[in-house]
Write a structure and sequence with these properties.
Belongs to the 2H phosphoesterase superfamily. ThpR family. Hydrolyzes RNA 2',3'-cyclic phosphodiester to an RNA 2'-phosphomonoester. Its EC number is 3.1.4.58. GO terms for molecular function: 2',3'-cyclic-nucleotide 3'-phosphodiesterase activity; RNA 2',3'-cyclic 3'-phosphodiesterase activity. This is RNA 2',3'-cyclic phosphodiesterase. This protein has 185 residues and is an alpha+beta fold. The protein has one domain: Cyclic Phosphodiesterase, Chain: A, CATH 3.90.1140. 24% of the residues lie in helices and 36% in strands. The chain is built from three helices and eleven strands. Strands 3-7-6-5-9 form a five-stranded antiparallel beta sheet, covered by helices on one side. The protein has a four-stranded antiparallel beta sheet with strand order 4-1-10-11, covered by helices on one side. Strands 2-8 form a two-stranded antiparallel sheet. β5 and β6 form a beta hairpin.
């Protein structure tokens, strides 16, 4: 069985900016896992191991729902989870917009109908740039005004996807279905 998650893919223009952030990070830190440009996303729900039948049922239920046509999110500034000198995850922060939170709640509700556990932790939307076993010091400790790590960007969301995970591959995530906003199929 494959592992899956549901998320919002980052558009190419924003991906370019976030790769610049990653370049700055690489100057001062070394992580075991760097996110590929093609893999940048906002996770809505991690599903884990899942049969083809179960994932197809989830996709069908998602397609039968009404979703917002589109909404905007503010992405940035840079941040981290864990020790701020050596965060275990370095990421771009994502605004906790009501449309995003509503989408997350609906995705979770459909998942619960299918027997997927609802996440117990509070939802902290973000775009992971690097993770696992950091070495070095975070550039956020001495970030100065005007640094691109403090920039914010607008991202329009009009779809989300179900991804299959291919560990050890590059890119690591394969889109198996995309759910468009404003449509009920």
């Amino acid at each position: 069985m494959s592992h899956y998650f549901i998320g919002i893919k980052v558009h190419s223009e924003l991906s370019e900016e976030l790769m610049n952030w990653q370049s700055i990070l690489r100057e001062t830190m070394n992580y075991k896992d760097w996110t590929a440009k093609e893999d940048l996303h906002i996770t809505l729900k991690f599903l884990g191991s899942c049969s083809d039948d179960r994932i197809e049922r989830y996709i069908q239920l998602l397609k039968n729902e009404s979703w917002p046509y589109e909404f905007s999110l503010t992405v940035g500034p840079a941040g981290g989870f864990g020790d701020q000198k050596r965060p275990r995850v370095f990421h771009a922060q994502v605004q906790r917009a009501s449309s995003l939170l509503g989408m997350k709640e609906k995705v979770d509700g459909i998942g619960e109908e299918l027997g997927f556990q609802k996440e117990k932790r509070k939802f902290h939307p973000h775009i992971t740039l690097a993770k696992k076993q950091p070495e070095g010091g975070s550039p956020l400790i001495e970030v100065s005004e005007g640094s691109i790590l403090l920039e914010t960007y607008e991202m329009v969301v009009n779809e989300f996807s179900i991804f299959r995970i291919h560990p050890g591959s590059h890119p690591k995530y394969e889109t198996v279905a995309t759910i468009k906003g404003g449509q009920k199929i």
